[in-house]
Amino acid sequence: MADSGPAPAPPRLRRSQKVGYALGHVLNDLCSSMWFTYLLLYFHKVIRFDNFYSGVVLFTGQMADGLATPFVGYFSDQGDDLTLCHKYGKRKSWHLVGTLSVLASFPFIFLRCIGCQTADDEAQLVYYAAFVIIFQFGWAATQISHLSLIPDLTDCQNERTGLTAYRYGATVLSSISIYLITWLFLGTAGGDDMIGPEDDVQFRNIMLCAVGLGAAASALFHYLVQEDPHQENRLNGSVRPDGTFHRRMLVLDWFKEPTFYLVGLVYLSTRLFVNLTQAYIPLYLQVTLQLPSTFVAVIPLVMYVSGLATSIAMKWVNRVVGRKLTFILGCLIGVIGCIWIKVGCQMNTNGVGIEIYGVAVVVGVGGSTMLITSLSSTADLIGINNDSGAFVYGAMSLLDKISNGVAVIVIQQFIPSNTDTCILCREYFRDILFFVCGGAALLGALSMAGLYPFTLGQRARDLRARAYESLPGNSYPEIGASSEEREPILS
After folding, report:
1. Burial 437-474 (b: 16+ CB within 10 A, else e)
2. What CA–CA distance (Å, rounded) separates 294 from 349?
């Protein structure tokens, strides 16, 4: 093939596009902060739900989300034939469907059962599960379409890292907003008290603020971010800037790539660490350390402020030390935070001094580093395979949801019944943070270490094709060749 000269540099995204993109996940982020941080606390302390059934509610949501993500991912990749996708763009169309589903269902999760407050827990479980399923489908549709926009908007790896950092910065700001709002409402309701059934009005007000802010941010996203609705899918393949041929990755092709499984483990361990610390630190504060209700807003707030500071520096750190080493360092920081929880903070009804704030900073920095780099690694794995990017994100999210759902329901099953009064039982949530979350961080470090021999975005199939081409008399087929003519080279 004739040398056509160096490929032109990809155009840089405008600042308005980056900000608009970051706003596209704010509704999900606000709802997710309430979901993981306060759902179990709300069901345990406010509506006095059975411990196991509380876990079933969260488990149902995780399973619904996990099953929805491959579905959404597949049809998001194939959605050009739908009228809305053809006119508006397939990613933004699915984002719109998801946003409307979240707005229609999430409010009912943080309200007492309408018309069935006096029903037994089994009946209320069915009520809440129905809204949770709708919410998690909408959440998955929004998440997968939003993530899939990253490789669609730019081919530049540094720009993709920048978009991921913008996205995570918005996530952190959204979580900070939730914790500030929580601090405001719980503080005015008597922040020195423990949380109880009388706080249902406060949680309702927090939920309404989250839904209102998220709806406004989603509207700005759809206004500022433009997706080309006629973007061409690479049905057979594409030509790289260096002139070599690259065949489109089909769904089954991903299962033949070892990096697909290793990145999946990286993403799974990251989400276990981030989500379980978010879910059980409020219960650790209330049950283990016996701290006043304002701490369930203040400590997560400190965690996310630390995460925001980390996200600002993440693009530079990735460039200096590399993606893989950055992730491993984040895992080690997370492990240090879990060890500190185990051996440092002691149960004390009068407070634990500044130690708990130090723990919050360390856990926040570790989780932020792991999350940003794992998302960036997933984008690197997809590379130029935009046409199947949503499937990859869906598969990663499926692993995330199943692992988190199973972990939560097992943890909830073994919560001692007299948690609030038994000193030994109060240690339960401390041990969960140490063993489960610390173990997840170690798993992530080992998984990323396994990726060191590989270059993300480089396909094992393409390496075989290049080896074939290097043999005398062999060459890549013409771009117009049929898939049957190409397959012998790639098999």
Report:
1. bbebbbbbbebbebbeebebbebebbeebeeeeeeeee
2. 14
Query: Which backbone phi and psi does 373 adopt, to 5 degrees?
Result: -70, -30
Q: What is the pTM of this model?
A: 0.74
Check: CB of residue 455 under 8 Å from CB of residue 377: no
Amino acid at position 300, single letter? P
- Evaluated on CA atoms 39, 281, 302, 402, the torsion sign reads negative
Question: Is 2 in a helix, a strand, or coil?
Answer: coil
DSSP 8-class letter at 10: P
- Mean pLDDT, residues 203-224: 94
pLDDT, mean of residues 202-213: 95
Residue with token string 């993606």: 323
Residue 345 — left, alpha, or beta (φ > 0 → left; ψ -120 to 50 → alpha)?
Answer: beta
- Nearest Cα neighbor of 395 from 79, 67, 59, 62 is 67
> 225 pLDDT band (50/70/90 cuts)?
confident
Contact 269, 276 (CB under 8 A): no
- The three-class DSSP label of residue 245 is strand
Q: What are the pLDDT digits (tens) for 390-440?
A: 778 778 888 888 899 899 999 988 888 655 556 666 789 999 999 999 999
Long-range contacts, stretch 237-240, CB < 8 angstroms, 24+ apart: 237/479, 237/486, 238/384, 239/479, 240/384
Sign of CA dihedral 430, 431, 437, 441: positive
Distance separating alpha carbons of residues 25 and 218, to the nearest angstrom: 7
Query: Amino acid identity of 275?
Result: N
